[in-house]
From TrEMBL, chain A:
GO MF annotation list: GTPase activator activity
Gene3D superfamilies hit by this protein: putative rabgap domain of human tbc1 domain family member 14 like domains
Record-given protein name: TBC1D22B
All copies of domain Rab-GAP TBC, residue ranges: 306-488
Region (Disordered): 146-178, 226-274
Pfam families given in the database record: RabGAP-TBC
Keywords in alphabetical order: GTPase activation
Organism: Bugula neritina (Brown bryozoan)
UniProt feature, compositional bias: Polar residues: 226-238
Taxonomy, superkingdom: Eukaryota
Family annotation (PROSITE patterns): TBC_RABGAP (PS50086)
UniProtKB/TrEMBL annotation, chain B:
Domain of life from the UniProt record: Eukaryota
Keyword Membrane: yes
Keyword match Transmembrane: no
Compartment(s) of residence: Endomembrane system
PANTHER family: RAS-RELATED PROTEIN RAB
Keyword list, A-Z: GTP-binding, Membrane, Nucleotide-binding
Example GO molecular function: GTP binding
Species this protein is from: Bugula neritina
Lineage per the UniProt record: Eukaryota, Metazoa, Spiralia, Lophotrochozoa, Bryozoa
Any GO CC annotation of this UniProt entry: endomembrane system
Name this protein carries in UniProt: RAB37
Main location: membrane
InterPro entries in UniProt: P-loop_NTPase (IPR027417), Rab (IPR050227), Small_GTP-bd (IPR005225), Small_GTPase (IPR001806)
Cited Pfam families: Ras (PF00071)
Amino acid sequence: MSQDTDGNIVNVNGRVKVINRSSANDSPNKLKKDCVSNDLGINNLTLDLNKSDPDEIVNLGAALSLGISRCITATSSNSTVACSKSTITTTSDSYLHTNSRHRQKPEAELFGLGNSNITISTSVWKPNAKSFPGRVLRIAPTIVPSVDSEDPESFHNLSQDMSKTPKKSGKNPGMFHDKSSFQQYEESTLDAWDDGDDDLLVRLKLDEDYIKSTATNIIDHHSMSTAKNGSADVSTGKASVAEKQGTGEPSPSVRRHQSNGVPSIKRSMSAAQSSRELAKQKKFEALILAPSKNGLEDLRTMSWPGIPASCRPITWKILSGYLPVAPDRRESILERKRKEYFGFLDQYFGTRHEDQYQHIFRQIHIDVPRMNPLIPLFQTKLVQEIFERILYIWAIRHPASGYVQGINDLVTPFFVVFLTEFLDADVECGEVDITALSKEELDMIEADSYWCMSKLLDGIQDNYTFAQPGIQMKVSALKELTQRIDCE
Amino acid sequence: MESSSNEHIDYVFKVVLIGDCGVGKSSLLLRYSDDFFQESYLCTIGVDLRIRTISVDDKRVKLQMWDTAGQERFKTLCGHYYRGAEAIIIVFDVTSENSFSNVLRWYEEARQLSRQDTVLVLLGNKSDMADSRAVSTERAQSLAASLNIAYFESSAKLCDNVKETFTATTRKMMEAYQKHHRAHLPDDLTNSKSLHMSQPIKSSTSLNCFDCSIM
């Protein structure tokens, strides 16, 4: 095990890659190259982003998306957003803020976590097990600033706070060169790689949930910061970072370390937040009513952190390509498309019991009642019939794929979102009495759901055609990736 | 999971359930692994996986049970999952003539894609629906006999004969395992042979598993 004091890439037997990015002299390209040239893949990665240029970190994030499994430990005092950026690009199997050592490298050193005071420790590996990677056994009295969820800046400043936390040990942090503090860290953590690895297989779903929740947290946070600094530039996060660097004041931390190890951002709808929401909604409405020059792109960028519920139906229709960006043409197109859909119904729906097509309808007919079995809305005959019609018409018009199980679930989100157009904001959609809606309203929902689902499927049809080449390709890409990462 | 991670395990077996759409493959597994039944259950997209550790003849056996989608279109994908399986259970619905007549196709596919020593089993599900029964036990038995495989009948709904089927299948897998003189597993099993065989599958299919399963 070697430690490169220059803060460059340290390669540990080709297995554990440690990147200590405290020196900003190396170009991201070099890093990228180094990552790529490590054919064996990267298993564990530690990033110290403390002193890096935010632009570089974003680039680095892109480089990292080439393949990191399992663990990213990012310590950063001034670039949380950029760091989040990099982690978003690697969410396939990344566990954020998880400290972990590789199972066969007990001697491998982790940098950037010199003191347990600043250890962010969360894990999803073995929620019930006594040991999991990065579990902190001995926590020095940590000063956790009081939580104030209403301050969006606080998340930014979390790590800053932590690095400013007085060190109880009295040692000079010397973060990356302090051997004893690493030993301290090592002694205070457990390595759970040893047994029951196969159990991970059944925990995939949990892991995915964890990833999703982390991603949601990041995105939420991102949108908050975006709303605050009034910049629509969410694609790079540069604005947030820049603003961030300008402010040095410590502010309370928002992240908590709970006993279950899952980080959470406490959220409550404060007045400030709702006014931000309102401002965001106004911005959406303005853009929808009077699109800018590259209206679609702007709308897409703005939608990335989340669309206000009231604008969601129309935004989805525009982004899916169902509605034009130009507002004046929308009404006529909606009318024409809805008419067209019901024309299809008249033309084709009668064929569902014919020999040639009955197997398609039979499959749809047995699948639709099995959708969302726990949500009452989907157990109503009215809704089930709507789904049957939508799916059957789509299947009959796309003979190369026909109806394939799973397509039904792609209608659901459209249906629900378009349904909300006709509901009060506080109504729980799954419980709604759909018979209260007029036939015209239901028809609109049905036709719009059909067209949007159709647009969505246009882009992924090869997932559903014979032998499912789209899925096969993704599986083989994943296979290649895992082979590079799993050098075992 | 009912077993702790450091528990002693003698065998790890991979079992794959195949058969037409809606015959009750997922329900059988749900009943067996969680002892739960739901009248209308989610349809399986791609594959799903359940694990249960059981004791058979004083041996601890970990069953990895793969649930596959019944729809024709998924056959190419699900075919990958037959490889390395110690047992394949062909499920049909005793109330559906159609699902029974497809058994032969499933059988041929399973034989083609699996190892020679893979245990094949025929299972007629929904035996509780006596009124709408379309396939008699005798017919199913004679088909199984002609294919030289065992036949079981079960009801996932009433939890009838589900456990027995899996136990008997496990016993057959253990016999097949010993018959083919594969090295006996060391006592401190965490790197069992079966586990190793499963490893490539684990990595190549894990995404697929959560991509396609809507559980």
